[in-house]
Structure of Calpain catalytic domain-containing protein:
Amino acid sequence: MRKIKKRIGALCLALGIAASTLFTPVTALAATGGYSESQLDGKLDTIYQGSIGDCGAVSAIQALDNSKYGRKIFRKMITDNYNGTYTLNFGGGRVTVTEDDVYNAYIEGDLDARVIEAGLQKAMNVYNGCFACDVFTRMTGFRQRTYRSSNKTEIMNTMAAKCQNGEGITAACDFNIADPDKGIIGDGGHSYSIKSVNKNTVVVINPWDTSGLISMPRSQFERAIRYMTYVDDAAKNVVVYWE
């Protein structure tokens, strides 16, 4: 039923865009999100996880938009073959998907993100659940390095420094301790991308709707997390931290 509704909605959207494009500048379409949902543009707009447990993949995709390095590889990740297929230029190996694969992706919103998720599903079956660190590894081709609690402060300070100097971070996490008032799910039940870190505050994004930001004291974040990961492009590592 969900797929039928999605197809009907997509058809209505396509017809609406076709009619309105005659009278609407491209810049206006981009501003309303209509353009990014129907055209590949090498940029990431709002995405919505949907009804399946692929939060690790969706949070990892969103995380690309939070750093210079992530945006750079995002722009080069998709090749439109102009024959009804797209090639995903993942660092861990290329994958080709069809328009039907993209159409059936559970993620909603930005078209670039839907193409990437279709490629990730084909490459690593993300609809059965995955960690963002494994998605980062697939997208970058970097090896993973795992750390434990004694490295927490060092990792947090490294991410804060990257945010302060303008590099940004491609990072994600999940939580042991819930905070319902902030929309934080505990017991490792949901993955979030990490937008920014400084000495006092951490901002995360829920993949259910990436247009919103969740801010919390850094002390709360450090107490509450179960796991976090970020892409260290200089060392060509995916850093993985577990409590």
Notes: Residues 143-242 form one domain.
